[in-house]
Amino acid sequence: MEAPKKLVGSVASCADDTLAGLVACNPGLRLLRGHRVALRADLDALRGRVALLSGGGSGHEPAHAGYIGKGMLSGVVAGAVFTSPAVGSILAAIRAVTQAGAVGTLLIVKNYTGDRLNFGLALERARAEGADVQMVVVGDDCAFTTQKKAGRRGLCGTVLVHKVAGALAEAGASLDEIVKRVSAVTKAMGTLGLSLSPCSVPGSKPTFQLADDEMELGLGIHGEAGVRRMKVMPADEAVETMLAHMTDPANASHLPLSRGAAVVLVVNNLGGLSCLELGIVAGAAVRGLERRGVRIARALVGSFMTALEMAGVSLTLMLADEELLGLIDAKTTAMAWPNLVAGPAVSQRPEVPAPNEGPEPQPAQQTPSTGPGTKRVQLVLERVCSTLLGLQDKLNELDRAAGDGDCGHTHARAARAIQEWVRARPPPAAPAQLLSALADLLLEKMGGSSGVLYGLFLTAAARPLHNRSDLPTWADAMDAGIEAMRRYGGAAPGDRTMLDSLCAAAQALHALRSPGAELLTVLASAVQSAEEAAEATRHMEAGAGRASYISSAQLLQPDPGAVAAAAVLRAVLEGLRG
């Protein structure tokens, strides 16, 4: 297996480059010349206060440099990817804050051997120079069921220690006071990770392998092995497994959590999880804690301490009292700390009442109609729905050429919504009411641009049918719907969209305006024209929609929207024929 692709300048300089990029974009940061160290730009503000330094290997961004700022860290020392920083750079950072007037320095270190050794040696050398330096080692890992000699690994809970210590330092607390308080905090929190994929150091192969149907529980932030490999499960089950492991008294590294406890929850993206998945996990974590009678006093959701591109998540729980919550809520200028409204997380919040809808338009007196009755409407709609459901896979396959491959899913969603609607109540037989009701349904349930386009089409097509529903008026309705789609959608015939099918059908439907026109005959001709136009999109250059960004050489299939529109018209014809 080759090393995965990375967007870096060079493997050798990637740790320096990322720190330089962060400093370039943040006027509150400065690099320390000759070292991979970032410091607050306003070092003078440290005079008479305790300075806070942290750091470790790169690859955990935004940790740790993202937490530099007033109310959090004074500076960080970065190593190469997943490598402890150099003793000389740590010592240089201590000297810099000491010479700026800090009355003491606290080193906040994750519990890894290299970090403890390098920060510890720098501490001893700084003390030999007369500096007042202390170190707090953070170990918040809840993975291991038996005690390990090395102790609990330092994970995302370290970020909460940064925040608590930073708020205390900003308030003028002494070094001893800060050490005492954060040492207590480290014993009252726990973190557990879960991953769907490995990560890979730039220039190297993935740190481990997971099968497509596997996930790993309890792994570290450098790709270290976890404690259990499991089959992939839904988010609710995965989160419940995590919470159960974290709080199990039989687990030597568990966090004691009793009913009535208040916690700060951190839902941390390990690097490659989508924000969509992260939100789902966050909701599951809130519900899981509520079931245990735990109050989530604060919740932080985002990327706080990552493991490169690892697709995974960690949960951190910190037992919190009102004093501790005040420190969490204290202001900070650190760019990676979320700007939250202080308050608890709950699974159920009062909803904003829906606005009053406008008055229903009163339909005008209908002239004698050739439109289908309720039974025929139901038959037509059922035929349309079964057609779209049967085309789901084909439409998805056609749509993949344009990038997202969800056209079939979108139309199937519409079909299922219509089926549910028809089962719940008889559809209106009056054409204008029928089309308006379908427009509202698709706008709410279908989703995507297709839902809006169909909604526009049906809304506009309904207007001519308010007063009449004879055959010529159906031709007018088709033209009105197409005009609305063109006006707001920006497409035209020849742009390789559903409009190609609809416009071809509309031309054929103009025959309905001729005296003595026969509906099914004209509609059959319109369907054939639509199907031919859909097939012709195979050879067109896309001029609108997502497909317009794709090279025409890659679009070797007909447009899925045009195929779907033609299929709908075919289903209407078959439904009317019975």
From TrEMBL:
InterPro entries: DhaK_ATP, DhaK_dom, DhaL_dom, DhaL_dom_sf, Dihydroxyacetone_Kinase. One of its GO terms (biological process) is glycerol catabolic process. Keywords: ATP-binding, Cobalt, FAD, Flavoprotein, Kinase, Lyase, Magnesium, Manganese, Metal-binding, Multifunctional enzyme, Nucleotide-binding, Phosphoprotein, Transferase. One of its GO terms (molecular function) is glycerone kinase activity. Its EC number is 2.7.1.28, 2.7.1.29, 4.6.1.15. Homodimer. Interacts with IFIH1 (via the CARD domains), the interaction is inhibited by viral infection. Substrate binds at G57, S58, G59, H60, K110, D115. Residues 10-337 form the DhaK domain. The active site is at H222. This is Triokinase/FMN cyclase. PANTHER family: TRIOKINASE/FMN CYCLASE, TRIOKINASE_FMN CYCLASE. Residues 363-372 have a biased composition (Polar residues). It comes from the Eukaryota. Signal peptide: none annotated. GO terms for cellular component: cytosol. Residues 375-574 form the DhaL domain. It catalyses: dihydroxyacetone + ATP = dihydroxyacetone phosphate + ADP + H(+); FAD = riboflavin cyclic-4',5'-phosphate + AMP + H(+); D-glyceraldehyde + ATP = D-glyceraldehyde 3-phosphate + ADP + H(+). Its cofactor is Mg(2+); Co(2+); Mn(2+).
